């Protein structure tokens, strides 16, 4: 059931938000209709075509009123459910009635001075998903009976609910509201995701992920199916005392090398660590290599890999439920609240994982030599700090170098000699009677 839990939470939150925002919009629209209908004079409305016998017609003309309304996602979801189970769509009926009222309101505004409007007709059309156009038409009769009541001079000439603000201002205000809603949903769901991630056991996690990605998880577990260097990486992890791995000791770790020049590594559910070949190109010592692996193990201890997966699910559900999968622009905009909500959270996760790399190096070698060396190289590649660093979910590499060095100094941890990567790899080959000449051909 755990594999349904996170999507269920995300779906419930999104439906709730759609319901609340939709009802608020409905009430605001209803208030606007009541206010503007009260300003209109008392006109006789009839769907029939017969001209009243009690009046003398001075002039008649065709009048129309048109409105376009957008329905919220809650109504859309309800409609899709009704397709399967049948029954009245009361929520849609209410929206159609309001659309008719506003179309009639605009028609009556266009018929100022008319005492009667006969032959009242309605036409509706779906413009796009969730958007409906309603048109009211009729014949306005200008007679010897002048309409009484109301304050037609107070009504706008172009109908209700039409903004006179600059379009760029309208875009800015709508975008800000849109971003705040997305940020609120994403942030609120994060608490549920953290709780769910901490509640899933390692055994259940492996079982679930094996069902989702059997080719990656199950078929790569056997040592004979890995290349020699991947087996070296797995052996390096297994050589660390179990108690030093923290809660991650319950994983049966696997490592896969990805042919990608980007210097990166990632922790996937189930204990599979991905290491890009571009990251291995930077490594000069076994200590650096274990520091990278130790960092990823730290993510397992923080359950960061599951939280990241849950947040991705929420992001996809948010885009699909609220903005439609084919809305490229809104999907891109919706990614910004996710980025801002993730920024501080992800940075904290990265720094916590760095702490584990220090602990693991100390447990393996008795010193922390090489713990920050790879970040120094990444800092040289990335350059100085920039404005984009503020939005990044990872701290600047040089900040991490300084932090790791400060931690080692404050804790009084020794900085020893590192083991050359070639030497460490050859020692592994000798241990398993492999041919040292294979050396670093993994690249």
Description:
This protein has 443 residues and is an alpha/beta fold. It has helices spanning 2-39, 73-85, 90-110, 167-199, 202-212, 214-217, 228-238, 277-282, 286-301, 304-323, 328-365, 373-382, 388-391, 397-410, 421-431; strands at 44-45, 57-70, 116-128, 131-143, 254-258, 265-268, 272-276. The chain has a 4-stranded mixed sheet with strand order 1-3-4-2. The protein is elongated. Mean pLDDT is 77; it is low at 325-345, 387-391 and 436-443.
SSE sequence, one letter per element: HEEHHEEHHHHEEEHHHHHHHH
Helix count?
Answer: 15
Strand content: 5-15%
Mean pLDDT: 77
The first-to-last residue Cα distance is 41 Å
What's the gyration radius in Å? 33 Å
What is the strand tally? 7
Shape summary: elongated
The largest beta-sheet arranges its strands as 1-3-4-2
What is the helix content? 55-70%
What structural category characterises the helix and strand content? alpha/beta
Largest sheet: 4 strands, mixed
- Model regions low in confidence, pLDDT < 50 over at least 5 residues: 325-345, 387-391, 436-443
């Amino acid at each position: 059931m755990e594999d349904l839990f996170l999507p269920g939470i995300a779906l419930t939150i999104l439906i709730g938000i759609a319901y609340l925002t939709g009802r608020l919009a409905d009430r605001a629209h209803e208030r606007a209709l009541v206010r503007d209908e009260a300003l209109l004079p008392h006109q006789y409305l009839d769907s029939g075509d017969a001209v009243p016998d009690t009046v003398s017609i001075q002039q008649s003309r065709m009048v129309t009123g048109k409105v376009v309304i957008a329905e919220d996602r809650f109504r859309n979801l309800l409609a899709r459910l009704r397709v399967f189970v049948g029954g009245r769509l009361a929520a849609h009926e209410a929206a159609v009635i309001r659309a008719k009222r506003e179309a009639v309101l605009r028609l009556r505004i266009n018929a100022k001075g008319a005492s009667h409007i006969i032959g009242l007709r309605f036409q509706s059309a779906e413009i796009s998903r969730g958007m409906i156009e309603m048109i009211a038409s009729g014949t306005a009769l200008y007679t010897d009976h002048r309409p009484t009541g109301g304050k037609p001079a107070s009504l706008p000439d172009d109908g209700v609910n039409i903004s006179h603000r600059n379009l760029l201002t309208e875009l800015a205000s709508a975008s800000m509201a849109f971003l705040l809603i997305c940020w609120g949903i994403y942030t609120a769901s994060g608490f549920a995701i953290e709780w769910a991630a901490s509640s899933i056991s390692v055994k259940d996690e492996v079982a679930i992920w094996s069902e989702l990605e059997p080719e990656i998880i199950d078929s790569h577990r056997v040592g004979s199916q890995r290349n020699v260097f991947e087996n070296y990486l797995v052996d390096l992890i297994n050589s660390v005392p179990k108690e030093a791995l923290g809660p991650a000791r319950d994983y049966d770790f696997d490592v896969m090398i990805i042919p990608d020049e980007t210097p990166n590594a990632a922790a996937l559910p189930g204990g599979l660590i991905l290491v890009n070949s571009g990251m291995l190109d930077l490594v000069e010592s076994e200590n650096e290599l274990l520091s990278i692996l130790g960092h990823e193990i730290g993510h397992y201890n923080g359950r960061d890999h599951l939280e990241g997966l849950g947040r991705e699910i929420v992001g996809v559900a948010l885009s699909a439920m609220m903005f439609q999968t084919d809305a490229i622009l809104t999907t891109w905009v919706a990614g910004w609240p996710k980025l801002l909500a993730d920024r501080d959270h992800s940075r904290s996760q990265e720094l916590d994982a760095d702490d584990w790399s220090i602990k693991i190096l100390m447990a393996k070698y008795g010193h922390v030599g090489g713990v920050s060396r790879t970040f120094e190289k990444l800092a040289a590649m990335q350059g100085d700090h920039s404005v984009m660093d503020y939005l990044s979910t990872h701290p600047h590499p040089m900040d991490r170098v300084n932090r790791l060095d400060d931690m080692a100094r404050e804790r009084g941890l020794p900085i020893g000699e590192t083991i050359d990567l070639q030497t460490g790899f050859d020692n592994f080959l000798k241990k398993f009677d492999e041919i040292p000449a294979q050396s670093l051909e993994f690249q």
